[in-house]
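Input/output pair, single chain:
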Amino acid sequence: MIEFRIKYAQIYLEDAKFLYENKKYNSAISRLYYASYQAMWAAIGEPDEGKVWKHLAIIKPFVHGFWFNPKHPQQATGLLENFRLPLRQLYTHRIKADYELVEMNENIVKNMIELVDDTIKTILTERGL
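Output:
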């Protein structure tokens, strides 16, 4: 399932790049958000039976890094703490773009493309894929 979700994260990232190149910034933000969501889901695994990963709540277990270092203390700072704020910002941009219809700009989307690309690369590295 990890490879399947990573595949879709990469597809959504490529879709976002296409949308970015065509100045469809709000749509690009949506695809970037779902690319990050699928990538984080691939990293941390399936939720407990009968549950789903809440959109904003998936960031915490991802950033903690328990998924690639199970011995990392639960109370310690996350191993991927540098991703926490940018991923939360991406979530906020997606809400603004999709629900509040705030127009995203080129710089925001460019930065978020880099974030999602780094997120996927980190997962591939830590998972040994």
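The domain at 2-127 is CATH 1.20.120.330 (Four Helix Bundle (Hemerythrin (Met), subunit A)). The chain has a mean pLDDT of 94.
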